[in-house]
Amino acid sequence: MHRLEEILRQIKEPATEMAEKAQVHLDNLTKPRGALGRLEQVAARLCIIKGSLELKQPTCGAAIFAADHGSALDGVSLYPREVTAQMVYNFLSGGAAMNVLCRQVDSVVKVVDVGVDHDFEDAPDLIHAKVARGTKSFLREPAMTREEALDAMMAGAKVARELIDSGCDLLIPGEMGIGNTTSSSALAAFFLQKNPAEVTGRGTGLDDEGLARKVDYIKGALELHKDLNPCDSVGVLAALGGLEIAAIAGYALKAASLGVPVILDGIISTAGGFVACRICPEALPYFFSGHASVEKGQAAMLKGMALEPLLDLDMRLGEGTGAALSVAVVRAAVAIFNEMATFESAGVIGHED
Ligand SMILES: O=C(O)c1ccc[n+]([C@@H]2O[C@H](COP(=O)([O-])O)[C@@H](O)[C@H]2O)c1
Ligand SMILES: Cc1cc2nc[nH]c2cc1C
């Protein structure tokens, strides 16, 4: 049995009996019923995941999975592929947006090389988990072998385990990979059976001509891979995905198997979570969506998972940034649940049933 199967066996859909109890508590707080909207939903979902009404403020951990893409050599991104490795150094020295936003919410940030086309001999703080030096161009052949996809998933799972062992109880999957919005859109188009134009955006900032080239690339790739079996989610991930997307899927599944919630970020992170749910639908109750990306394929995948993003700030950076920002919302939800007075304790007249 592959180690992935062991993780999947441990994923248990949380019992929903806590939902009603959490709602009773929320309805006793000094506010009109439901007036705190999705903050209430977040608190109730955390109670369901934890199987308890005792919520503690989460300790957040983030991992940025970096990998290169064969497609990046075919003009699907505005930026050269070397930027992936250069940004890894930036993450390690603490200067990227994700570092700044994680410092705001006291989150550790691990940086993981799962497939960058660069030797990081001079980077002791990097987690070295390189599976390959980037993917192949999926317009011509599968991006990865099945073994590579599974190895990347297990690399992600190992990082999740380490973060959780170190005390983190809320995980963020981040990523860096020039070209990775093309893979994410291809996965969305394939699994949701959408025309690629409906789920493909400008990524790092392509113009109209670049966007048309990207859509054509995905159409060509879907034609090449048309015989893929949609029930073989790992096979589809290997053919169309990326090493960091596979790592995120493994990371999210491992977190779910340990009962730890995950906040998905933009289109790439959402693609990782989406593939994770295709592999194991029981993992979905552990996933939140941190923010709505400008990249339109993300909304389609979120709809497929019935997840609503917590924030919408017109962001399209990735790295985990939107998810890191949304930790403030999660913290607010926990504080509301724990600290608000009830109608009884505050002597406020409540609503008659
Ligand atoms: O998170 C998002 O929704 C998102 C949207 C557009 C771009 N990105 C980031 O930009 C890179 C991919 O863009 P591209 O154009 O090279 O496919 C990659 O490093 C992502 O982290 C991320
Ligand atoms: C500079 C830069 C930073 C990024 N962070 C995530 N994707 C990125 C893409 C570029 C180009």
UniProtKB/TrEMBL annotation:
Keyword terms of this UniProt record: Cobalamin biosynthesis, Glycosyltransferase, Transferase
Keyword Transferase: yes
One of the Pfam families matching this protein, by short name: DBI_PRT
Source organism superkingdom: Bacteria
Protein's pathway: Nucleoside biosynthesis; alpha-ribazole biosynthesis; alpha-ribazole from 5,6-dimethylbenzimidazole: step 1/2
Biological-process GO terms, alphabetical: cobalamin biosynthetic process
Molecular function, one GO term: nicotinate-nucleotide-dimethylbenzimidazole phosphoribosyltransferase activity
Reactions performed catalytically: 5,6-dimethylbenzimidazole + nicotinate beta-D-ribonucleotide = alpha-ribazole 5'-phosphate + nicotinate + H(+)
Coiled coil: none
The keyword Transferase appears for this protein: yes
Listed CDD domains: DMB-PRT_CobT
E.C. no: 2.4.2.21
Active site annotation, chain numbering: 319
NCBIfam families linked to this entry: cobT_DBIPRT, PRK00105.1
Function: Catalyzes the synthesis of alpha-ribazole-5'-phosphate from nicotinate mononucleotide (NAMN) and 5,6-dimethylbenzimidazole (DMB).
Family affiliation: Belongs to the CobT family.
Stated name of the protein: Nicotinate-nucleotide--dimethylbenzimidazole phosphoribosyltransferase
Protein species of origin: Dethiosulfatarculus sandiegensis
Gene that this polypeptide is encoded by: cobT
